[in-house]
Design goal:
Elements (H helix, E strand, L loop, with lengths): L1 H14 L5 E5 L10 E4 L5 E4 L5 E4 L6 E3 L11 E4 L5 E4 L7 E6 L4 E7 L8 E4 L5 E4 L12 E5 L4 E5 L10 E4 L5 E4 L11 E6 L4 E7 L11 E4 L5 E4 L2 E4 L2 E4 L2 E6 L4 E6 L7 E4 L5 E4 L12 E5 L4 E4 L11 E5 L3 E5 L2 E3 L2 E2 L3 E5 L2 H10 L1
Antiparallel strand pairs: 1-32, 2-3, 3-4, 4-5, 6-7, 7-8, 8-9, 10-11, 11-12, 12-13, 14-15, 15-16, 16-17, 18-19, 19-22, 20-21, 22-23, 24-25, 25-26, 26-27, 28-29, 29-32, 30-31
Length: 365
């Protein structure tokens, strides 16, 4: 394992020099771990979880403001921006189907439409027409479900849609260029990782079976994902469960909708990390935990032009279970997470490849 990591590091170093850097940003009002973030239509960034309130980052002020109290806390919920209408907090409680609506004008949370099925570790994707697909997750019986549903912002309600071919929880969902949704990863009903994807068609309201990962002997639980500018989907890391053994996935998979196939790419083993697509099309992999359950300070950059990862800059604070939100100008806002097995953090930092921005932050500190 150690020899493989050394070889991987050398290979990444050959592909390109370190580019960009992380600079300090103001702390949030509360330490957060496994939170969810959403970039609002105003450009501000909203964070929730898991607590009784949220944090809103103002792009103009560069500061965090505490929101009002939420009606009830949620864990591993999905925060989804609504066009011109704030945000909706979905899932996070396998026994309570209610969602929570956020109003940015008043920074308040109120109960909203209930899901048709209460769920946690579901996958969520915003369709091209603004509707929101919610699928899978752990239900009230603590087992993965096949059910799926759609939220219509025009009516403010959820309705059931076609079920997945197999139950899964803890996967990813990314919208493809033609409007379909790729769902991959997660645990199946037996507790093993599901190695094969499914694809949802909004036109028919049904799921169909998709291709299996390049290394199809295992699936991935809670991997990170990002859609590339060319329409492909990058999935990396996560935990693998196979025949009673658990380990971190030491690779990444790239799905190409043109060929309907996955291809394998090698990268560092990470879990509870993030993937964020930058304005220029590169993807930044940030933090996570390693095989020894230690927080990772490193980042990596997937360059679609090279079709490979290279070493990125180091975080100011090693962390996992954080959020990473793309900002204009090849920047990423990184917030919260754990810095040890027993300590959450309220610290935030910003990735940038602009030296002028770095100097500006240094002057303000």
């Amino acid at each position: 394992m150690i020899l493989g990591s050394v070889v991987l590091t050398l290979n990444l170093a050959v592909l390109g020099a370190v580019d960009g850097l992380f600079v300090p940003a103001p702390d949030m009002t509360f330490a957060r771990y496994t939170a969810s973030a959403a970039a609002l239509p105003s450009g501000d960034v909203l964070l929730y979880g898991p607590s009784y309130d949220g944090d809103a980052y103002g792009m103009a002020s560069g500061t965090w403001v505490e929101t009002s109290l939420i009606p009830a806390p949620r864990f591993n919920a999905h925060l989804v921006a609504l066009a011109g209408r704030g945000a909706l907090l979905i899932g996070g409680d396998p026994t309570d189907p209610r969602t929570v609506r956020y109003a940015p004008e008043t920074k308040t949370w109120t109960w909203s439409a209930p899901l048709t099925v209460a769920r946690r570790f579901e996958v969520v994707a915003t369709l091209a027409d603004g509707r929101i697909l919610v699928a899978g997750g752990f239900g009230s019986d603590t087992t993965p479900t096949v059910s799926a549903e759609l939220y219509d912002p025009a009516t403010g309600t959820f309705t059931a849609t076609g079920a997945m071919p197999r139950p899964r929880a803890g996967g990813i969902a990314e919208v493809l260029p033609d409007g379909r949704v790729l769902v991959a990863g997660g645990l199946d009903a037996t507790g093993n990782g599901d190695p094969c994807a499914v694809v949802y068609s909004p036109a028919s309201g049904t799921f169909s079976s998709g291709p299996c990962f390049a290394a199809a002997t295992h699936g991935r639980f809670a991997p990170a994902s990002a859609r590339l500018r060319d329409g492909r989907v990058l999935v990396s890391g996560g935990q693998t469960y196979f025949q009673g053994s658990t380990r971190l996935a030491p690779d990444a998979d790239v799905y190409d909708p043109a060929t309907n196939q996955w291809t394998q790419r090698f990268t560092s083993a990470r879990f509870e990390h993030t993937l964020t697509t930058l304005d220029d099309g590169r993807v930044l992999a940030i933090g996570g935990v390693d095989d020894w359950n230690s927080p990772i300070a490193t980042s990596e950059i997937f360059d679609p032009a090279l079709d490979a990862f290279r070493i990125g800059p180091s975080l100011m604070v090693p962390r996992y279970g954080h959020t990473a939100t793309a900002l204009p100008g090849n920047r990423v806002l990184v917030a919260g997470g754990r810095i040890s097995a027993s300590e959450w953090t309220a610290s935030t930092e910003i990735y940038t490849d602009d030296a002028l921005m770095r100097d500006g932050f240094e002057e303000e500190q």
